[in-house]
Amino acid sequence: MAFPHRPDAPELPDFSMLKRLARDQLIYLLEQQHEVDKLYKVENKPALSSNEQLCFLVRPRIKNMRYIANLVNADKLAGRTRKYKVIFSPQKFYACEMVLEEEGIYGDVSCDEWAFSLLPLDVDLLSMELPEFFRDYFLEGDQRWINTVAQALHLLSTLYGSFPNCYGIGRCAKMSYELWRKLEEEEDGETKGRRPEIGHIFLLDRDVDFVTALCSQVVYEGLVDDTFRIKCGSVDFGPEVTSSDKSLKVLLNAEDKVFNEIRNEHFSNVFGFLSQKARNLQAQYDRRRGMDIKQMKNFVSQELKGLKQEHRLLSLHIGACESIMKKKTKQDFQELIKTEHALLEGFNIRESTSYIEEHIDRQVSPIESLRLMCLLSITENGLIPKDYRSLKTQYLQSYGPDHLLTFSNLRRAGLLTEQAPGDTLTAVESKVSKLVTDKAAGKITDAFSSLAKRSNFRAISKKLNLIPRVDGEYDLKVPRDMAYVFSGAYVPLSCRIVEQVLERRSWQGLDEVVRLLNCSEFAFTDMTKDDKASSESLRLILVVFLGGCTFSEVSALRFLGREKGYRFIFLTTAVTNSARLMEAMSEVKA
Amino acid sequence: MWETWLWAWCPKESQKADEYLREIQELGQLTQAVQQCIEAAGHEHQPDMQKSLLRVGLEGRAGQGWEGGGMDSWGSSLCCPLALLRRLPLETSIPMRVRRVLTARGDGEQGKYRYKQLTIQVLLDRYGKPRAGATLPPLSTPSHSLLYPLAIQICEYLRLPEVQGVSRILAHWACYKVQQKDVSDEDVARAINQKLGDTPGVSYSDIAARAYGCGRTELAIKLLEYEPRSGEQVPLLLKMKRSKLALSKAIESGDTDLVFTVLLHLKNELNRGDFFMTLRNQPMALSLYRQFCKHQELETLKDLYNQDDNHQELGSFHIRASYAAEERIEGRVAALQTAADAFYKAKNEFAAKATEDQMRLLRLQRRLEDELGGQFLDLSLHDTATTLILGGHNKRAEQLARDFRIPDKRLWWLKLTALADLEDWEELEKFSKSKKSPIGYLPFVEICMKQHNKYEAKKYASRVGPEQKVKALLLVGDVAQAADVAIEHRNEAELSLVLSHCTGATDGATADKIQRARAQAQKK
Predict the structure, then answer these.
(1) CA distances from residue B143 to A201, B127, B147, B263 in whole angstroms, order as listed
(2) What are the strands, taking DSSP E only, across B354-459?
(3) Touching check for B417 and chain A: CB below 8 Å?
(4) Per the CB < 8 Å rule, is B316 touching A142?
(5) Do B354 and A142 touch (CB under 8 A)?
(6) Which of A205, B143, B265, B513 has the fewest other C-beta atoms within 10 Å?
(7) Transmembrane residues, as ranges (chain A) (predicted)?
(8) A326: burial class by Cβ within 10 Å (0-12, 13-18, 19+)?
(9) Do A140 and B291 touch (CB under 8 A)?
């Protein structure tokens, strides 16, 4: 249980610096504006505050600008004069100022920027808290956040030294990387002297691996996220968990000793662990019998508080487990997982398809159905035309015709596609590759794939051995590979790529995989010969997920780190899961 | 006044100085006097004269008690250029002009007679950048271009870092170079690039701006090509009305804000058609602009799609309009019709058909609301049918299912759920017997148990097919019979499933039975 790190595992860098930096900057900004007395959410509602000045701390979104404009204009109509200040975080966009101007309030507000782009959610997890990144970039093709990513990376390299080894895959990864390099060049000199603290950086686009993000999570932290939704590193446990009539907001990070031991565990182990823990706790409480007064005094002053704290946490997590069990261990969930595994392994496709159809017909859950359809599409290189039409028809009948737009979005993002008629590319490909050298064949298929981007999941899975061969039962208590995060059925593709590249220290030998991922132009390595990098820093790896990462991926890489004596640190545009991805693609009635 | 006065007597009769000094002091204007002495020293070209002037000033300060601050800094700022001048080898024969530049007086913000703090950088700038205008005698071009080597010499002498020294001079030289009207654009650009290369601290965009200032737009563009930071090129390109070039440079820079700035420029500069054409060739800019339009200018968005003959997106646009912009049912249907037409044009028959279905559904829902009351509008087809059944309108629901070709399976699920919700067990049973269930009978058992109706559940359990029989029996809690079936099936998985349901003493006999059956199976 809760495998310790190897004794030689490197220390994590100190992320509290980021917090301090951001805090100081915000305080500075707010001090210019006096007496901020209360915070309100920016909504399309009249401001309740009677203050003479209003300060808005917002994301640079056009919608937010409209809210502010409505508010200011309402004040104007009412004959009120106030001072307004808009603080954009992490940066100001010209488009936003344009909107303020078009709404006729540009002269009334003053604007500022709060360059807070990296929120340390945990000792090893930084989030940019930009869930919109996913839709903006992967659906709308909007590159506005790339600059923000580059700035964030630049900040990291100023604080923790430059990264001697850089790897990346994906179009966005490449753009961010290049922009970041440009920033470094413009401001050279500053970082050069620093000893690098983090030896490797790995940038990865979410669309390189949609499959992993679409799977149901079964590791505790992921399951908690899927079930209760973790927001900004904390979760609202409802009455059914707290076994009282109140909801409780709980911070979930390494500070929570109980949580820290079970977060990366497969759910099937968690309950047993917690009850063992409860017994131990009881035993510790029981020690006080037979204590003399002095010992008792010691116990009360030193241990009791810790025990009580642990007790509280323990009962919370047991409550959460019960609630999850109630929701998930029904037959439905097992069937669901079974179908997912079948999709990943690529057998019983017909059966899975009718399972999905039934799922839709019964209106089980709009988001879940959509997720399964996408999973089917990606693992099968698109749906066969008949299924594509019938599943969509069924879905529209169940959930309304506006989802026509959702499907159009999903197609654009490559999440739910139709196999092109006569799509026997693989057959042609294999014939061609027998005739010509591999390289030439690669070029030919590249030309094809630019026409229709195919996910090639099956081929990639075979190449990278993503479906472990299991002889007998997979022991989830003693995992032997990263597949444990999906009950031993599937090694997350994203994590496998990271593992393989780190092993080789380059993309060498992975050409075929890169080609299958449609990333031939977007896989890069950049090593600077840096003798200053200590061997310790070389075992510290920052993995950057552009478009979001899931807790399962985090758990899998934490596991890999423990196995190999690495430490992984994560930077993500936001923590995501299958539901969030699907919601980002859905068109909801405004 | 003081200046002329001091100028008049100072160099001539030093004996009188003390007298004057006293007089000045009596007037209480010593401070100014001292200042002016020092200033005067700066204006003097002969070292001797400078010395005596400075001496007067310093004496005044020492003898009479200096009240004003900042003397020392004055001294040092003066000393720098002076010392430098003196230390430079005489044979370099610094022209008079340069000396005057070195000691030129600037107009400070506060006092008329305050010396501009002549830092080395300012000095070099002056040196390198001959001032045009009446203050200096006109110089012949060759002689003043000769000053650049000298300036570089000074830099090297002072061991200034490249960015502060040589680069600045080179930049100034380049700015001067672009003013040579008789040299072709090509040659100037090449000459500048050859000399400057990528010297750090040199901004090609500044030089280009200078070229543009001289009316040489083409040269400016050529020079901008050497600017490594594409973002820096954009403002000038915009100024020069090269907006399209500016757009591609902005896109290169990766700075979306910059792209957006250029876009709005373009929008005002070009007519709509040209603007759209430009966007068409720049997908990144296009998506950026679309995002903006989606929130701010919906009509423009439509025009954009129209221009591109992007019927798919046009269809989506009208779909969105059908529920976001339109309130009246007629308007919504009309929007959907437009969408359907667009989808046909986009050869997306599926979407077109789905849209037409939606039009029919909307009209029907409207009619249902009128005839039956209640809420129907905007429900999905499935929910419409469910609502009808829940309202007891079974006939209507069936008609709906026929009209909209609801598949049998869905209809069964739907009816089953709705009738169970109503707890209309009689109707449910009638329904279950209407024909053979396409979804089997296990769902019937499940749903009855969900409503805690074991009695009804058992009715259906008997009809469940052999494959799911065990499951059904376990659901209704008939472990013994489940065991019998499992044994009959000789299915190991089913046996374990039943066994896992055997609890306590009540099922003890059943458990034994299963174990026996297992043992028997193994013997064979």
Answers:
(1) 56, 13, 7, 47
(2) none
(3) yes
(4) no
(5) no
(6) B143
(7) none
(8) exposed
(9) yes
User: Measured between beta carbons, which residues in chain B are less than 8 angstroms from residue A142?
Assistant: 256, 287-288, 291
Q: Contacts of residue B378 in chain A, CB cutoff 8 Å? A: 400
A73-102 burial by CB neighbour count: b if 16+ within 10 A, else e? eebeeeeeebebbbbbbbbbbbbbbbbbee
Side chain identity, residue B422:
L
Position A57, amino acid: L
Q: Which two tokens stand for residue A85?
A: 């200040």
- Chain B residues near residue A361 by CB distance under 8 angstroms: 407, 409-410, 413-414
Give A105-155 pLDDT, tens digit per residue. 888 888 888 888 899 999 999 999 999 999 999 998 888 899 899 999 999
**CA A33 from centroid of its chain's CA atoms:** 35
Rounded distance, CA B486 to CA B465, Å? 13
Return the closest-CA partner of residue A213 out of A472, A574, A523: A574
Please indicate whether, in this complex, the C-beta atoms of A389 and B350 are within 8 angstroms of each other. Answer: yes
Least confident of A211-225, A401-415, B271-285, B338-352: B271-285
Q: What is the ipTM of this complex?
A: 0.81
Show the tokens assigned to B374. Answer: 């209640």
B216 vs chain A: nearest CA distance in angstroms? 28
Structure tokens at A275: 């009850």
Cis, bond preceding B283 (omega within 30 deg of 0)? no
What does pTM read for this prediction? Answer: 0.79
Note whether A404 contacts B288, CB cutoff 8 Å. Answer: no
Asked whether the beta carbons of residue B404 and residue A397 sit closer than 8 angstroms, the reply is yes
Distance between CA atoms of residues A368 and A363, nearest Å: 10
Q: Report CA dihedral (B6, B9, B14, B18) to the nearest 10 degrees.
A: -50
Instruction: Choose the mutation target among A61, A92, A396 for the interface with B, i.e. most B CBs under 10 Å.
Output: A396
Q: Tell me the average pLDDT across B224-249.
A: 80
End-to-end Cα separation, chain A, in angstroms: 47
For residue range B348-399, what is the model confidence (pLDDT) as tens digits?
Answer: 999 999 999 999 999 999 999 999 888 898 899 999 999 999 998 988 999 9
Count of Cβ atoms closer than 10 Å to residue B367 Cβ: 11
Residue A276: CB atoms within 10 A of its CB come to 11
Torsion of CA A420, A421, A422, A423, to 10 degrees: 20
- The whole-number pLDDT of residue B35 equals 61
DSSP-assigned letters across all residues of B79-148: HHHHHHHHHS-GGG---HHHHHHHHPPP--SS-TTPPP---HHHHHHHHHSPPPSTTS----HHHHHTHH
Q: Does B61 score more than 80 pLDDT?
A: no
- Gap between the Cα atoms of B412 and A85, Å rounded: 58
Shortest distance between the Cα of B465 and any Cα of chain A, in A, equals 18
CA-based nearest residue to A170, from A431, A529, A517: A517
**Secondary structure (DSSP) of A454-507:** ---HHHHHHHHT-S---SS---SSS--SGGGGGTTS---HHHHHHHHHHHHTSS
Q: CB–CB of B264 and A99 under 8 A? A: no
Predicted pLDDT of residue B3: 41
Listing DSSP states for A205-219 in one string gives: EGGG-HHHHHSPP-B
Q: Pairing state of beta strands A83-88 and A109-113? A: parallel
User: What is the three-class DSSP state of B61?
Assistant: helix
CB atoms B260 and A98 under 8 Å: yes
Q: A398: nearest CA in chain B?
A: B382
- The residue type at A158: T
Distance CA B61, CA B32 (A): 11
Residue in the block written with tokens 């159905």: A369
Count interface pairs A-B at CB distance under 8 A.
116
Report the candidate in A62, A236, A212, A205 with the shortest Cα–Cα distance to residue A137.
A205
